[in-house]
């Protein structure tokens, strides 16, 4: 993702196993949610302790390093250019009035772990998930 595309976004899951630098994405907004462990990031020289399920937002061009983690875990990453969608952790059974997608973080009878599903406003979320919402759409 280059940041040149208007209103583009990418959702990914990465395995975190050891301290390492992050890739740079100039012109892109970045949101990261650690899943399965707590992490410590250094973003442009400032330390951020980020707990499992909490979101941290930062510029894709920020110098970012994973400096510590309490155990191997996953990072749910949302990269966006143009408008900035929100990434939130929600419990099973949550409902949304507007269109959104969810990355399922715990398997259920309708979705496997890390499947991406489109949410139906008439139906509750089938399991715990990280939801991408597009405010104002």
Compressed to H and E, one letter per element, the order equals EEEEEEEEEEEE
Q: Tell me the radius of gyration.
A: 15 Å
Strand content of the residues, in percent?
A: over 45%
Q: For the largest beta sheet, what order do the strands appear in spatially?
A: 1-8-3-6
Q: What is the distance, rounded to the nearest whole angstrom, between the alpha carbons of the first and last residues?
A: 22 Å
Helix content class: under 10%
- Supply the number of helical segments: 0
- Tally the beta strands: 12
Low-confidence stretches: none
Give a short account of the largest sheet: 4 strands, antiparallel
Class from secondary-structure proportions: mainly beta
Give the overall pLDDT as a whole number: 82
Inertia-based shape:
globular
Give a summary of the structure in a few sentences.
By secondary structure, this protein is mainly beta.
List the helices and strands and how they pair.
Blueprint: E1 9-16, E2 20-21, E3 29-35, E4 39-43, E5 46-50, E6 56-59, E7 64-69, E8 73-80, E9 86-90, E10 100-104, E11 116-118, E12 129-133
Antiparallel strand pairs: 1-8, 2-7, 3-6, 3-8, 4-5, 4-7, 9-12, 10-11, 10-12
